[in-house]
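Morning!

As promised:
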Amino acid sequence: MTPKQQVKSASNILVSANCFLQKFIKFPEIGIFHSHAELLHAALLEANHEVISFVPQPFKLHVNGRRYIPDCYIAYKNKHEVIELKPRGEFDDDRKIPLQEMFKNDYGYEFKVISNESVFEEEVKANNWLFIIRTLSNADEISTENQEQDLLEKFFHKPKQQLGDVIQINNRMNAYLDELALFRLIHNGKLNISNEKQLDLDTEVTSCI
Amino acid sequence: MHLNWKQRLDNDPSLKNVHDWVSVQPSSLPRSKQSKFVRNIKAVTKVANGELIKDVAKELNVSSAAISILMKKTFSGDSDQPPALTTALIPMARINKDKRRSELSDYKNTKGARCSFNYLLDTVPGLDSYLNDIVKLYVKKAKHGENLTPTSFHDKFIQYLSDQNWPQNKYPFDQVKLGYESCRKYFHKLVAKFSVPKTKNNIVQINPPVNRAYNEVQIDSQTLDINTSAYFEFEGIVSPHRLSRMTLFIAIDVATDCVLDYKLCFSDSPTQFDLLDLLISINKKWKPRKLKTPGLTYEPGACLPSSLGSTYQNAGIGTISLDNALCHHSHTVREYICNEMAATIKLGLPAHPKTRNVVEYAFNRLNRHIHRFSCTTGSHPKDTKKESLSNAKKPPVLTVNVLEDILSVILTHHNNTPQNRLAGHSPLSMIQSQMSNRLIRINHHMSASPKNPFIREHKVKVCWSSKEKRIPYIHFQGLRYSAPNVLDSSLIKKEIIIKYDYRDIRKLEAVTIKGEKLGELNAPLSWQRYKHSVDTRKYIVNLIKQKKISGKDPLHRVFEYLYKNREFPSEALSLVNLITEFTKEQTEQLPANDQVYSSSGPRKLISQNKFKWKANIVRKRESK
């Protein structure tokens, strides 16, 4: 039971909930997220280099006679998880225990309940990654291999730099490929950014190699 | 466990210090109680600190029993509950809840009705929960709830007691009004209890203020409540006509309050294509209008940000906040925003306009200027804002062109006006400052190869009639499309793909299922005269079906039909919309790589149009 796309009923509550729609790289379709916490959680999954892909609202299940759709399915390099996001992490044991048993016994997945508050604690990081994802999500046809090599060389000589050192603020239209290469290296985990504050020209970038 | 006063003081010796208790100023009490309150404090302090009760009683001239009772009242009680302390020292103060101790009164033994109602609630099985339930259903407006009044509530109370075989000689049946007053008070208490909203334990998430330009853009539409007119010229005769209400879209940046773009739609119900037009124009260079209204000029430097340079035209928007209007939920809009603009769509909760306060306030600001003209609506029938009945019989003075000039000047002027919330900067200077000093996302995809959201694809079957012996054709929007040497006999009864621009369906591009280009298919000649969209085609075909217009030269006939009905404001607005569509140049918004749609052949036919609409009344008057 490996999900590839959101269940169709995910769009049923578009007009009744605080919904967000966003395309991601690890989920390259327009994902429907039923709360701000779900959107930020997905952005944090993009930031996690252990995550290969994820699917929001992946399955439609019946638990104890009630319909239930988990919030997210995550495929890690060596495991699979099904996630439910709840305020304060409160979830009925009537549903939690059968779900944990079913996913574990039948599919080897781990079922977890995460609190919205724990996601909001990393809001700055999630917003920074949303910025990176938006930059990369519609640029997949552009090749930046040469620029990436040049950048890695620069960081080899000077492993700690600021974004403003790489991004030419007065020549952004022409130096776009450098900017794209920089964000690709960050997304691939070859460079690392500081997530203490909002992504800006003074954000520190360090080499991970 | 119950503690007497000595045990309480042994358990918690800190209670001996009266200064640590909650202080009640004697002056805050009624004068008659002040001296006794001070005496009680003295007595308790002395006894708690080890003096003998009889010595204290002698000193303060009270009985030993009174001091014992005072000590008991002040300190004793359950170990789980805090002692009464200062409250118990106030003379005549009730520490415990009122409770009936004696039996209920009846006809023989009249003992008064004090606390009898509460006694009933505690003793009659199910009475309290029954009364609670019926009031809860009433307050929550539940399906099975009954509209209650104190009288009907009292009736239900009496009925319940009778059903429980409550003795008819006991309270409340021994009372003249059957306990009505207690029942009435209890009813109001329950209504208040269930009406007060429960405090949610959820932690309210406070989003940090958006401080980066283009991080969030709010888009909304509003039907303008303003009377406008348009001048139509037919066979040399110029006549003004009233138009129905139009819709205005505004896109505004939250961090800088800068209007990014706007669009005036000649309809009161905008479609997804109007919204798409607005979204596309955010990333296109804005050109100032050639203002024809006397007295109206652009302020120096006033413009929309897209005219400031290519960086602004390609600025990537983070989140686009929309409300739940039907056109905002279109798949085309969704795909354009998420795939081409690479932005997040935030739809928000229904009926919560305050979450998009910036765009709502932009409409409010605009209406301060617009409402200087008479409005179509008002707060009441006699509102002076409304157009007078005598004026309503004539076409309004304000024309569409003048309105467009006004909107352009007001919105660009706002962008150039310093604001307090921006620390004295104007929205434009703020956005320029941020663009040169902060990391604003650049969406190069928009300048390179954005997908045209108006291009659609369909699978259709190639048809051919052996009786007619004409070239093969396809059906599209109620018409036959064909062209010589495009569809050969091998394709008959096979499916092909057609691609077309939703805004101009005079020509279609035919492609085989395998993707080989076949060529262009043309609509019948009678439909080739003017550029028209799928919606316009449907409208015209519908009119033909209803036999309101003839099928011969339908594009001309629809003009005639609308022109005949131009006295109706909605039909006049449709005419303006139709002429705008027919005479609109094929825009530069089409991608350069899509040659099929960028070459609009019969555009020169537009000059043959004998219909014109002239909305500039001022120019007309000057010429006269």
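The two ends of chain A are 36 Å apart (CA to CA).

Hope this helps with the figure draft.
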